[in-house]
Amino acid sequence: MKRLALGFALALMCACGGDDGGGGSPDAATSGPDAAPLEVASVDCGSVTPDQTITTSGFMYSPMSVTITTGQVVMFTPASSHDVASDDGKFSVPLGGTGCFRFNQAGTYGFHCTPHGFTGSVVVQ
Ligand SMILES: [Cu+2]
């Protein structure tokens, strides 16, 4: 029993330490002491029902823009040749990936496809 607990603790330490090697996502290390909600927070797609979904169609986002209210979630599902990169680095989804983000502040959040440069936006009211 003690042995199991120790192994679990080591596994946890391992998981935390391994993330500092660099090359990860640029906004992953923002875990400050103040618990104010992130302006754009990554959420687990499996645990939310997205309020809007943005995919790609050819060389454009579909739809190119969505409008949500503060606190709602947008799911991004770019095709395998496209990604989603926030213009100011607040969120990103890799090529062909799936990402869900909760937008906690009003504003317009532009994003683009890194390889192709086409653009989209999330308008938070
Ligand atoms: Cu693209």
Please describe what this structure looks like.
It is a single chain. The protein is mainly beta. It has a single domain (37-124), classed as Cupredoxins -  blue copper proteins (Immunoglobulin-like), CATH 2.60.40.420. The protein is 13% helix and 34% strand. The chain is built from one helix and ten strands. The strands form two sheets. A five-stranded mixed sheet has the order 1-8-5-2-3, with no helix packed on it. Strands 4-10-9-6-7 form a five-stranded mixed sheet, with no helix packed on it. The longest helix is centred in the N-terminal third of the chain and has 16 residues, at 2-17. It starts with a helix and ends with a strand. Residues 1-25 have low confidence and may be disordered. The structure holds copper (II) ion. Residues 81-82, 113, 115-116 line the site of copper (II) ion.
Q: Whole-number radius of gyration? A: 17 Å
The first-level CATH class is given as Mainly Beta
Strand order of the largest sheet: 1-8-5-2-3
What's the N-to-C terminus distance? Answer: 52 Å
* Helix and strand run: HEEEEEEEEEE
Count of individual domains: 1
**What is the SS-derived class?**
mainly beta
- The CATH architecture term is Sandwich
Bound molecules: copper (II) ion
Q: Topology of this structure?
A:
Blueprint lengths: L1 H16 L22 E4 L8 E5 L4 E2 L2 E4 L4 E5 L6 E3 L5 E2 L5 E5 L3 E6 L6 E6 L1
The structure holds copper (II) ion.
The site of copper (II) ion has 5 residues, from loops.
Question: Which key features would you list for this structure?
Answer:
disordered N terminus; single chain; binds copper (II) ion; 125 residues; mainly beta; Immunoglobulin-like
